[in-house]
Amino acid sequence: MCGRYTFYTSEEYREMNRVVRMIEEKYGKGSCPSGDIYPDNRVPILVGQGQKIDVDLLAWGFPRWDGKGLIINARSETAAEKKTFAYPLKSKRCIIPSTGFYEWKKQETGKGKDKYYFTLPGKNSVYMAGLFNAYEDQLRFVILTTGANASMAPIHHRMPLILENHELKDWLFDDQFAAGRVLKASPLLESRFLEA
Questions:
Q1: Which keywords appear in this protein's UniProt record, sorted alphabetically (predicted)?
Q2: Is a pLDDT exceeding 90 seen at residue 108?
Q3: Stated pTM of the model
């Protein structure tokens, strides 16, 4: 599960700043959000344009069929079998650039949840695999999730499908690569407990 992530743009986040510059060239200064990202926010996404990686602003979450709320995640293992995700998986893959994401773990007392922040060791960026589609003339995306690896399992049973830098272009442009990548584990992460 991934219900909130971060997109920090301070000086040390060079890769994110490059995304911001591209977004602002396209949409104008101040058009790119930063900080904590929530469902339904319109945020920077990497998409394939021709044979190049481009940026766009998309809203997070597909509308539910009953009109009540949003679908913000899709299980990578079964996306090809689900009507909502099968077409986007074949032709509308995207990448969600971030600086990390949050997950919560129920406290043993059952009275609250502890908050953790996850990042890739030694890196300032985390790229999550996603799918997008058009809904009423608005482009929207979901984050693909997979089973938790050893670094995530103590906190939650699911995690985002994380792509390494060398996989980004293949995820967007290589259908065969993408079909196999949805079944592979994400890289190991490091976590930090955050005070409530």
A1: Covalent protein-DNA linkage, DNA damage, DNA-binding, Hydrolase, Lyase, Protease
A2: no
A3: 0.96
